[in-house]
Structure formats: structure tokens, C-alpha cells
């Protein structure tokens, strides 16, 4: 999963994944919107391949790239799990703070009453 998060950390790679979500594309098609060489795009694609976020197939002369969503699903599941853990902790903290406030409120009212 570290490879997935590392790959997703780069905005160019995220943009490539967004483009591949629309359908398969060749390296030259993926390179079009970027001001970088096809060689630089190929390096990004290798990172995405190592993270199993994309795959390449050979069709005659071209090697189109395809989005593989399985690892994205794994990462999303990990994030969802940890989001729930932190939401639960936040809820418990809110309850604890409310309890502390409730304990202080009667005492402070008694102190201000003549």
C-alpha cells in the first residue's frame, strides 16, 4: 500500500489516473496535456505500474495503458477504516469534554450565587 500512496502523492500521476478513468490511452495521448517529454511521462507510468494502479497491454504497434482500480479500492478501504477510527475517537473526546463542562457548570453557578 505504500507504493500506492507514494504514486498518488504526485499531481501528474493523479492527473494520469483521472485521464485513464475515462478510458485506455497511449503514452503519447497521456503526455498531451503536460509540458514534459514522453520519457518523463513513461517514468510516471512505471511508478503507477509498480503500484499496480495501471497496466499496459500490447496491441499491434501500440501499448495502451489501462486503469486498474483494485489497489485504489484497497487504499480507499484503509482510509475509510482509519477515518472511522478517528471519528470514533473524536466522538469520545466530545463526550469527555461535555462531561467535564457539565461537572464545572454547577460548581461555577454555586460560586457566583450570593
From TrEMBL:
Keyword Cytoplasm annotated: no
GO molecular function: DNA binding; DNA-binding transcription factor activity
Domain HTH arsR-type positions: 1-87
UniProt KW keywords: DNA-binding
Record's keyword annotation contains Transferase: no
Pfam families the record matches: HTH_20
InterPro entries in the cross-refs: ArsR-like_HTH, HTH_ArsR_DNA-bd_dom, WH-like_DNA-bd_sf, WH_DNA-bd_sf
Stored NCBIfam families: HTH_metalloreg (NF033788)
Name used for this protein in its record: DNA-binding transcriptional ArsR family regulator
Species this chain originates from: Actinopolymorpha pittospori
